[in-house]
Amino acid sequence: xxxxxxxxxxxxxxxxxFAQLFEEFLAFSAARGRSxxxxxxxxxxxxxxxxxxxxxxxxxxxxxxxxxxxxxxMLTRTSPAAPxxxxxxxxxxxxxxxxxxxxQWVPTNPARLATLPGxxxxxxxxxxxxxxxxxxxxxxxxxxxxxxxxxxxx
Length: 154
Hints:
The chain is an all-alpha fold. The protein has helices at about 5-10, 20-30, 35-55, 65-75, 85-100, 130-140, 145-154.
């Protein structure tokens, strides 16, 4: 970004694009002492997803509907993203927009109202008593110590 473009981005307003916001947000996050791992995660999500999707869009153009549509598309494309990935990318965008609100670049954060996917956690499968007995027998035949360990664990 040119010096003039950076100065305009720092002033905020309707001309600020998401690319400019993300650049400032990353610099601000690094200056605040975010870990290299966190910054790497931010950069990966921003350059790999957010910049191609909304980088050229001005901050005021983003709507909750647009975000909901983006998240739905992430979950239904040929290689769908996991719900946890959508939530992680959302958290990065939301943090950047929260900072834009603090900098008074936008009046509100539309990401706060976006609809996120549910958890991708699955319920654990509990083995039946017969399966546990079979496991204990198999482990005991390998090693009495291993069999005893599995018996105590069960």
